[in-house]
Amino acid sequence: MFLPLLICVSALANDEPAPSKPIKQASAKEEATASSGDETKASSKSKKANKESKADMAARLKEEQAADELAAKIADKLALIRKEKEAAPRVAPRPIVRSYAPPVKRPTSIDDTKIKATGGHAATAHWSYEGEGGPLSWGKLSPANAKCDLGERQSPIDIRDGIRVDLDPLTFDYKSSQFSVIDNGHTIQVNMGAGNYINVSGRSYGLVQFHFHKPSEERINGRGSEMVVHLVHKDGEGKLAVVAVLIERGKAHPLIQSVWNNLPLEKNEAVNALSNMDLSQLLPKGREYYTYMGSLTTPPCSEGVLWLVMKETIEMAPEQLSIFSRLYPMNARPIQKHAGRLIKESN
Ligand SMILES: [Zn+2]
Fold this sequence. Notes:
The protein is α+β, with helices and mostly antiparallel strands. The protein has helices at 2-15, 17-48, 54-91, 93-120, 138-141, 146-150, 254-261, 318-327, and strands at 158-159, 163-165, 171-173, 179-183, 188-192, 197-200, 203-213, 219-220, 227-234, 240-249, 271-272, 289-295, 303-310, 314-316, 344-346. Strands 2, 3, 4, 5, 6, 7, 9, 10, 11, 12, 13, 14 and 15 form a 13-stranded mixed beta sheet that branches. Helix 1 crosses helix 4. It is elongated, with a radius of gyration of 41 Å. The two termini are 55 Å apart. Bound molecules: zinc ion. Zinc ion (ZN) is lined by residues 211, 213, 230, 297.
């Protein structure tokens, strides 16, 4: 598309000086012939002018000499102009290309400024699941979110083609704990008191919080679920392990009901529940799971997160689903690139 435009433009460029070429040449020739015409007129006049004095003759000769010199100068200039004109078409496309190159380069520089502008805007920019602050913009909202755009090990993914192996057993060491519920503007989150752990591959991770997404962020062989609960754990080195439990429509879940019972009236204000919670009641009976390395599914999309997705789902009543739906009808990040990651699953 660009090449014909260039050809068109360079053709125009060649055409442009061309009309002036014959005009200038013509005018110069006219000048030259005019002066030489004067010369011939002058010589015919000199025959008649016998009566003219020697001084007058000398003056005339000088004038004629000057005219000759002028004609020679004009001829030189003409030759020079011709040379420049001949050279011009060869040189012209280059500056034309250069003058047309910036618009081609401009989009990247505009992007840069955009990134800078939105980066500067980061302090006030809020991420969301739809519209301006939606998932496709997360990476541009702040330089800290670069992984959201550029990361190669992002979550969630469609879990498929896992390698069936004897996975290390995933054990839960959950006990009755105090909890508080917060609506953080992106989801309903439950902060748990200390003392809840998971153990996998010889590592122990302490539970920090759990929260919900609707619909489920992860898919299994292309299929999503009504909702998912993410149980976020951290080990002593700060490494994250997230257990995902998929939720299907079905029977009412008493533990989820106790979370809904403590929903805060205001956003970002944690409500301390009066009763304790035993999170082991949230888990499915089966302990089979899929595992892969991924990221946080919210900004800053940090990678190096160990994902443990339970194969067995849990149930939640339609009324319970609709309560969450009224607060967050859709708070799931779209599926991310698989990027050749290894997925393992329990036999
Ligand atoms: Zn989550």
